[in-house]
Write a structure and sequence with these properties.
Length: 554
């Protein structure tokens, strides 16, 4: 399975660029199957950065819960509805199968064929003597099954329902029997008996099969051609030839068209429930267009492989892509606090350092490996660093960030000052997005001291648009709380020109009056000098919630 490198939900520029750059590093070193992925749309600044870098955005994957299509066998052995018993039976035996899906020649899925149902083809109609002798097939298929020699053929590929008559009686009795049926649908099996062959040819039967490897005399061959009778010489005796002819029956009547099928997109957990109630052994897996995608057996669900994930710019499952708790997390590369319920069955590589950007950590991995990033990847990582550190002005900025940014700039083929200016000028969320999208675009959820809450952050050049849209933003925060079952939600609006922020809350948690920042209005605070969600606002909220816990314990 692929290895996905994921940023957090509602990803910001650092999350997207870290995923792209780290996937590139892994592809060039130890994991060629690494794929950068994201579980949200790109904001305008990130789109601008990737466009300037000439990079495609990460693959959008909203849910990594393993699906049936991830574990089913893609190279499935199939049968076709125009095939006959012997062809399909030999394929089943050769591949040790007891069932296989059936398609038509255009690749359309038709149903399932089991070995038990296939055997019924041979014994079809055994309770009815007439039906037992009917064979729906073509001359070509019959000859193939017999491994015979065609002495004369008339429309060998036409599909006919033929009645098998074995010429093992007297010539008189045989001739009498011929008159009971429509001769053009009669298949006669005869040994080297001209007294049987002659009346069969005179009556113009559809097919005459001569057993024991014998052939017709010259005169009888001329009569066969004159009366349009197909003649085949079989190397087998009469009993074996007759049985083999029955194995040339088409399989169409044995196909189960009402069997259970599974969607390739069906989560494995749901597939287990469905399969547990079924007596089927094999399950055709279909794609969104109803085409065969693969096959799945019950044993495939015993211990299916899990998708592998590398988390960048987060380490909490509440911020991770849907289904991360069912995946194998093999590595974490982050610069935030430790939190949540992240666990692993095996030791994993976990890098968590107090730097201003995850892209700083990724770039350091490039340098440690002795690899030079391409100009596009370098600019991508530059974008993540300047975004998360507000161009090195955030209090989260470290000397490591400054050093790495200088190193990366040497690989970029753009005017850095102009790029940074344009980067921050692009994409005011308040100007272009609905209030609902503003509060959800760069939104992280946290659990602290028994409280579940979210903090969203946007960066603007001034607060004019915020004041115009304040009421809508407040309503959107209330809706976010209701939708996600949170205790409260916060929006940090940061002015990149003044390095200050406004904080809007859906509701003020208990003891919020202990906050040492000016209260401008209900749920609205002025936070001068606060620009970092992780290093300034989150610790502030955590301390206030801790105050609540201490007060309740007294």
């Amino acid at each position: 399975m692929n290895l996905y490198v994921f940023g957090h939900r509602n990803p910001d520029t650092d999350a997207i660029c870290a995923a792209l750059a780290y996937a590139d590093l892994l592809q060039r070193t130890t994991r060629p199957n690494a794929i950068a992925a994201c579980c949200g749309t790109l904001n305008p600044r990130t789109e601008y950065a990737l466009t300037k870098a000439g990079l495609a955005p990460p693959r959008i994957v909203m849910d990594v819960r393993p699906e049936v299509g991830d574990i089913c066998r893609r190279e499935s052995v199939v049968a076709y509805d125009d095939e006959v018993f012997s062809e399909v039976y030999e394929r089943m035996q050769g591949n040790h199968l007891s069932a296989m899906p059936v398609l038509d020649r255009d690749g359309k899925y038709l149903g399932l064929l089991t070995l038990l149902d296939l055997m019924k083809v041979i014994f079809e109609g055994d309770s009815d003597p007439l039906k037992a002798r009917l064979v729906l097939s073509s001359i070509s298929k019959i000859n193939s099954v017999l491994q015979g020699k065609v002495l004369h053929a008339v429309t060998p590929d036409a599909i006919d329902e033929m009645l098998v008559v074995v010429g093992a009686m007297s010539a008189e009795g045989f001739t009498e029997r011929l008159h009971q049926y429509t001769t053009t649908h009669i298949l006669v099996v005869s040994g080297n008996r001209p007294t049987i062959q002659l009346p069969a040819l005179e009556h113009g039967v559809r097919l005459l099969v001569i057993t024991g490897g014998y052939e017709l005399s010259t005169g009888l061959m001329q009569l066969a051609k004159l009366n349009n009778v197909t003649v085949i010489s079989s190397p087998y005796d009469t009993a074996t030839t007759t049985m083999r002819i029955k194995s040339a029956r088409r399989i169409a009547s044995a196909i189960d068209m009402d069997c259970m099928t599974l969607s390739a997109k069906l989560p494995i957990a749901e597939a287990r429930i469905l399969i547990a109630r079924s007596s089927q052994k094999l399950f055709p897996v279909l794609d969104d267009h109803g085409k065969l995608f693969g096959v799945l057996s019950k044993s495939d669900l015993i211990n299916p492989p899990k998708p592998q994930l590398i988390l960048v710019d987060h380490n909490e499952l509440t911020q991770a892509v849907q289904g991360a708790d069912e995946a194998e997390i093999v590595e974490v590369l982050d610069h935030h606090r430790l939190g949540g319920s992240l666990r692993s069955d095996q030791p994993i590589r976990f890098i968590n350092e107090p730097v201003g950007s995850t892209c700083t950590l990724v770039a350091r991995q490039f340098r440690a490996a002795g690899l030079e990033p391409t100009p596009g990847i370098a600019l991508c990582m530059v974008s993540g660093i300047i975004s998360d550190t507000l161009n090195l002005r955030s209090p989260t900025t470290t000397d490591v960030d400054r050093d790495i940014l200088k190193w990366l700039s040497g690989f970029c083929k753009v005017d850095m000052a102009q790029f940074i200016k344009e980067f921050f000028a692009v994409g005011s969320s308040l100007r272009t997005h609905s209030a609902q999208r503003v509060v959800r675009e760069d939104c992280k959820e946290f659990e602290d001291h028994g409280q579940r809450f979210s903090i969203s952050q946007i960066e603007e050049t001034g607060f004019d648009l915020f004041w115009e849209r304040r009421d809508d933003l407040y309503t959107a925060l209330k809706e976010l709380v209701a939708d996600r079952g949170l205790d409260f939600s916060a929006l940090l609006v940061t002015d990149i020109n003044t390095n200050g922020s406004l904080l809007l809350l859906s509701s003020e948690p208990e003891y919020w009056e202990e906050v040492n920042y000016p209260r401008l209005d209900r749920g609205l605070y002025q936070l001068d000098g606060v620009v970092s969600r992780k290093k300034q606002l989150l610790p502030l909220i955590s301390n206030l919630l801790n105050t609540v816990r201490r007060q309740e314990a007294m």
